[in-house]
Write a structure and sequence with these properties.
The protein is mainly alpha-helical and 80 residues long. It has three helices and two strands. Helix content is 31%, strand content 5%. It is flat. The model has no long low-confidence stretch (mean pLDDT 78).
Length: 80
């Protein structure tokens, strides 16, 4: 028997992230640019204005807003 999916989850679609930045997304989270939300938002505005933005959400903005653990800490990652 097939497992039942709750009604609320059936309607959810995955977010379509814009990846038009291409190779500049490689290791973006480790670059100094990832910490400059204002510059990322300005870039997003330019992309929307020029028609380059393709998707529902900017991948760079998503990356910049995501908390990553400090790799230099000895503490283990919190359990999910």
């Amino acid at each position: 028997m097939k497992p039942q999916i709750p009604e609320g989850r059936k309607k959810q679609q995955p977010t379509l992230f814009c990846t038009e930045c291409g190779a500049s997304l490689d290791d973006f989270c480790f670059s100094g640019d990832a910490g400059d939300l204002k510059a990322i938002q300005e870039n997003l505005s330019r992309c929307k204005h020029t028609g380059k933005f393709q998707g529902e959400s900017c991948a760079k903005l998503f990356i910049a807003r995501t908390e990553l653990p400090d790799p230099h800490l000895d503490d283990p990652l919190p359990e999910a």
